[in-house]
Amino acid sequence: MQALVMLLATGATYYLGLLAAAAAAVNPGRPNTPGSLPAHRRQKRDWIWNQMHIDEERNDSLPHYVGKIKSSVDPKKTEYQLRGESAGKVFRVDKNTGDVYALERLDREKISEYHLTALVVDKDSKKNLESPSSFTIKVHDVNDNWPVFTHRVFNASVPEMSGIGTSVIQVTAVDADDPTVADHASVVYQLTKGKENFDIRGSGLIVTMNKHLDRETQDKYEVVVKAEDAQGRRGESGTATVFITLQDVNDNFPIFTQNRYTFSVPEDIRVGSPLGSLFVEDPDEPQNRKTKYSFVQGEYRDTFTIDTDPSHNEGIIKPIKPLDYERIRQYSFTIEATDPTIDLRYLGSTSPKNIARVIINVTDVDEPPIFQQPFYHFQLQENQKKPLIGSVLAKDPDAAQRDIRYSIRRTSDKGQFFGITKKGGIYNDKELDREVYPWYNLTVEAKEVDLSGTPTGKESIVQVHIEVMDENDNAPEFAKPYEPKVCENAPQGKLVVQISATDKDITPRDVKFKFSLSTEDSNFTLIDNHDNTANIIVKYGYFDRERAKVHHLPVLISDNGRPSLTGTSTLHVTVCKCNEHGEFTLCEEAAAQVGISIQALVAIFLCILTFTVITLLIILRRRLRKQARAHGKSVPEIHEQLVTYDEEGGGEMDTTSYDVSVLNSARHGGAKPPRPALDARPSLYAQVQKPPRQAPGAHAPGEMAAMIGVKKDEADHDGGGPPYDTLHIYGYEGAESIAESLSSLGTDSSDSDIDYDFLNDWGPRFKMLAELYGSDPQEELVY
């Protein structure tokens, strides 16, 4: 038999709890006692035998009775205990009676059920009298929470002018109560603000209630939504704010900001340049502004165009052809502005078009002369001088109608073949040769002048093309150079060469050339083929090379021009030795027989002339040099010398080796020693000049500086010094100096730690230094 049972594990007990709850509702002021049944407000449920139940948030005094556990063991020996995480903290059991109590008010939204273990032990030994039994205490929900929105603020948008019932946004509020209990978690929505334009449906969907929501009138709306419990018992509710923004649609036509636009523009405005802007007002957002500007009734469509600036939605007027103040001084036309992309469903009684009047005043500017033609083409017969080839004409387009003067740019007529009169007549000063230049392209300038002939305004230019017409002024000649050859034993009638002709003049299609020999007393004859070619054949046969190795045949060539011209070209036929097969075996070149050409003679002459001039220049140079030497005016040579020395003298007390009088005289203002002649070479050792010793105790720290300054001044003011560099040695080291020589030229290179062998790689200029300072000098310095 099961010893441990749940006293409340019957459906009847649960119904008793419901009755007790009803009694508590009738007598709300009567508190529950620990032995009384809890007040339940639940519908009938299927009872689970191992569960206890307690309502959350009970208002009666603690502790709250939950249920009872009981064992069939002798109650005098038994003791009841609870085990579990919430045992002793949230729940306790009466160890003698087995009554279970809740020590605190429970919140189902935090913990909906608790799991415990019931024990029956011996009072004395504390040993289990029955096996432990697990059970669950479920917290019954009461409607103690109101709905809470997922967000305090919602943002939504909807196109303006949307129809009634258009969805805007879905809002959601959550009730923390048990959704399995009827109406505990059900939420009811309603609008507390903005209900005149919007409505909310049961699921929290906000929709439009006004189809005339105009963004241009009001673009934002604030809607407040309240969420309540479906039972509405607690009187609490949650609210949220919804900000609804109207999205723009293209539902407005552009309207001109003014009814009349007036512009002033100079007549020389460039075609395609903007001359003015038209402004309209369109309350739609920029992406929905698609204004189109057009002319009404086609006025001046061929003179102006109106482009739309997409960034500013303005109309830009541009001329599409030049304006002329003298022809039209004012343009007046009507334009309209419309939007072809507008949605006509949103239009009411608004006019779909808007018109304005535009007036453009053209102002006068000083314009350059205008030629009557964009270019001129004249023809001129070659080899002729014409007083008038053709005339150009330009006019002043301004009202002043100034006179025009013409000129030809020299850059277009470098040969100065043409001239132009004041009235624009073009003539040629020289005869022209079509075969040299068939076309001449002149640039003619036109300038406005005042009554005195002084240019006053702008200038303009025009191109004049002069075509030189051909005349028959060139005789025909051979089409190419020929080098005919013939065997000395050639038979009669043997073809030597076929010739053809050409003409430098323009050759017409029906040109006919006639060929003939100027003499018939030769061994050749000519046959005209009447197709602008001719054959040269052997007349008698057999040629004597000993008598003539080259035969010269003058050929007369005539054309059929007007007048007909005849030219003479010469064939040089070489007589050659031939073998039995008629192949040439020995020929002398015709050029060798004819002689040297003129070009070769010119080249030879130029070579001889150049050689003669060079020879004369050499002879003249030598003669001038000899004359200069004879008169002692030879150019002095420039020398670079390296002066060496290897002794230091006897120091300051040595007055016998060097003459110090020169230096002393310089210090005391004496006369300077004479300077050697220009051709003189400096001596091996430069004189060392020392100043006289001062008395003991005299202060002379600047003697050396004074001496160097004196020598420097002498060198600066001496204009007759030699044009070569010299090395001066100053051995003076100051009065009472005990220092030895400061020169390093006398030091043996072997005593130095520096390796000077790299001087050998520096070229011949450093050869001497390399030998002096090298590790193994081979010879002494030679002067």
From TrEMBL:
One GO CC term on file: cytoplasm
One term of GO molecular function: beta-catenin binding
Entry keyword set: Calcium, Cell adhesion, Cell junction, Cell membrane, Cleavage on pair of basic residues, Cytoplasm, Glycoprotein, Membrane, Metal-binding, Phosphoprotein, Repeat, Signal, Transmembrane, Transmembrane helix
Transmembrane segments: 596-620
SMART domains with a match to the protein in the record: CA (SM00112)
Keyword Cell membrane found: yes
Localization terms from the record: Cell junction, Adherens junction; Cell membrane; Cytoplasm
Signal peptide (residue range): 1-24
Keyword tRNA-binding: no
A single BP term in Gene Ontology: cell-cell adhesion mediated by cadherin
Residue span, Cadherin domain: 80-149, 150-256, 257-371, 372-478, 478-585
Membrane topology: Single-pass type I membrane protein
Assembly information from the UniProt record: Part of a complex composed of AMOTL2, MAGI1 and CDH5, within the complex AMOTL2 acts as a scaffold protein for the interaction of MAGI1 with CDH5. The complex is required for coupling actin fibers to cell junctions in endothelial cells. Within the complex AMOTL2 (via its N-terminus) interacts with CDH5. Interacts (via cadherin 5 domain) with PTPRB. Interacts with TRPC4. Interacts with KRIT1. Interacts with PARD3. Interacts with RTN4 (isoform B).
Function: Cadherins are calcium-dependent cell adhesion proteins. They preferentially interact with themselves in a homophilic manner in connecting cells; cadherins may thus contribute to the sorting of heterogeneous cell types. This cadherin may play a important role in endothelial cell biology through control of the cohesion and organization of the intercellular junctions. It associates with alpha-catenin forming a link to the cytoskeleton. Plays a role in coupling actin fibers to cell junctions in endothelial cells, via acting as a cell junctional complex anchor for AMOTL2 and MAGI1.
Name of the molecule in the record: Cadherin-5
Species the sequence originates in: Bos indicus x Bos taurus
